[in-house]
Design brief:
- About 35% of the residues lie in helices and about 20% in strands.
- It has about 475 residues and is an alpha/beta fold.
- The protein is elongated.
- It comes from Muricoccus nepalensis.
- GO terms for molecular function: manganese ion binding; metalloaminopeptidase activity.
- This is Leucyl aminopeptidase family protein.
């Protein structure tokens, strides 16, 4: 997909991988001259460090340090631009094929729509048995590309078209809801997008992986640009708001991976594609909006628009009675204050879902951190003019309050998980170039594959009145 893979059978050099503890054994296996070279250059197998081994014709082989994390994909992410340009490679001793392929493809990615890369990456001959890793890598790359697109290139119509292309690639049914149908069926989505000349819409994908498989609903916030509305953001706060559709991009990537791998699941995917703009037709502070669920919402702040979009999507999905609902959104700065840029906040009403997703995140180096649905803060959403406000009455616990708002639109007997993600790398690291990032996609995929056999069984979502840890 990104020019980092070589055709099978390409003449290639070996790249070995080693953790610090395995370095003595590797030195024993290598040619004595290569081993001496590694010793004298002080190679200690630090994560992402690459040693090029000389040969008669130049570079003969390479050794990658894995560091303490072992076969994490991130160490392999250093290889595409750390190995000589124009060279092709195959995996040698110590390499995990899936981690290596994933890390290589993710590390080779650069956003090139408007700027050519300074050089081409080295290429990897794809190892056998890593088909799932390749599918996941391609899904992540598509999600990154969507997030990186400037808002001038990606408005609501273009995001909906991206969802349509996913459906076409995977044999899913596609529906776009716009205009009067949107105003009637998704009034909160329509209100959020009403200030933009680029009309809002909801993109819906339906896929029947197996007739008797559990139905999973994936619901993505697709705010293609967020000015904050009439509660206008400052320049710094607005600068990266092209990424405010990151939740939608992540879940489109997840859906594509599940469909391409023929997972035993039925999917309902809904993307709320809008632009939150400033104009005479924009929603105003203290406007009262109706929602698909029938609840009325007072607009305490027009910059808390993502939860309004998700409110209608959650109500829509709940009508289909799925076994599990997952939403993802770049929702609150409070989550970033609490957890920083790398850890998405996870909220869920199901202990089984929390356990599966958290374990999956740990196992594949794509971690979440669970925050509580603490009902003691639910009263902060009360409004004297509507059923609830879209913001809390106190300037604290913003991520929790936003999750509690969303929970009002989830049927109490349906499993639900909410991800508050950053969807961006502030700086470049191996495998993670600066820019859009599909945080949580791999963990959601792995967690769902673990959960699917049990989703046909009844679960007991935590009722309101407690505090899920």
């Amino acid at each position: 997909m990104n020019g980092s893979l070589a055709p099978a059978g390409t003449a290639a050099r070996l790249v070995h991988a080693v953790a610090p503890g395995g370095l003595p054994a590797l030195l024993e296996r290598l040619d004595p001259a290569a081993a001496a070279f590694l010793r004298e250059t002080g190679f200690a197998a630090e994560a992402g460090r690459i040693a090029l081994l000389p040969g008669d014709q130049g570079v003969a082989a390479a050794v990658l340090g894995l560091g303490r994390d072992g076969n994490s994909p991130w160490a392999y992410g250093a290889l595409p631009f750390g190995l000589p340009e124009g060279t092709s490679w195959t995996l040698g001793t110590g390499c995990d094929p899936a981690a290596a392929l994933l890390g290589w493809m993710l590390g080779a990615y650069r956003f090139t729509r408007h700027k050519a890369p300074p050089r081409a990456p080295a290429r990897l001959v794809p190892p056998e048995g890593a088909g799932e890793a390749r599918v996941l890598a391609e899904a992540i790359l598509r999600a990154r590309e969507l997030i990186n697109l400037p808002a001038a290139d990606l408005g609501p119509a273009e995001l909906s078209d991206a969802a349509r292309r996913v459906a076409e690639r995977c044999g899913a049914d596609f529906e776009e809801i716009a205009g009067d149908d949107l105003a009637r069926g998704f009034p909160a989505v329509a209100a959020v997008g009403g200030g933009s000349h680029r009309a809002p819409r909801v993109a819906v994908l339906r896929w029947e992986g197996a007739p008797d498989a559990p139905l999973v609903a994936l619901l993505g916030k697709g705010v293609c640009f967020d000015t904050g509305g009439l509660d206008l953001k400052g320049a710094d706060g607005m600068k990266r708001m092209k990424k405010d559709m990151g939740g939608a991009a992540i879940l489109l990537g997840l859906a594509e991976a599940l469909m391409r791998r023929r997972a035993p699941v039925r999917l309902l995917v809904a993307i709320g594609a809008v632009e939150n703009a400033v104009s005479a037709t924009a929603m105003r502070p203290l406007d009262v909006l109706r929602t698909r669920a029938g609840l009325t919402v007072e607009v305490g702040n027009t910059d808390a628009e993502g939860r309004l979009v998700l409110a209608d999507l959650l109500a829509f999905a709940g009508e289909a009675r799925p076994a599990l609902m997952i939403d993802a959104a770049t929702l609150t700065g409070a989550a970033r204050v609490a957890l920083g840029p790398d850890l998405p906040a996870l909220f869920t009403n199901s202990e089984a879902v929390a356990t599966a997703l958290s374990a999956a995140g740990e196992s594949c180096n794509d971690r979440f951190w669970r925050l509580p649905l603490h009902d003691g803060y639910a009263a902060w959403l009360e409004s004297s003019s509507a059923d609830l406000s879209n913001v809390g009455s106190r300037p604290m616990a913003g991520a929790i309050v936003a999750a509690l708002f969303l929970r009002r639109f989830v049927p109490s007997d349906i499993r639900w998980a909410h991800l508050d993600v950053y969807a961006w790398n502030d700086s470049a690291r191996p495998g993670r170039p600066e820019g859009g990032e599909a945080m949580g996609l791999r963990a959601l995929y792995a967690g769902l594959m673990t959960l699917l056999p049990s989703l046909a069984e009844p679960d007991r979502p935590r009722p309101a009145g407690g505090s899920a840890g």
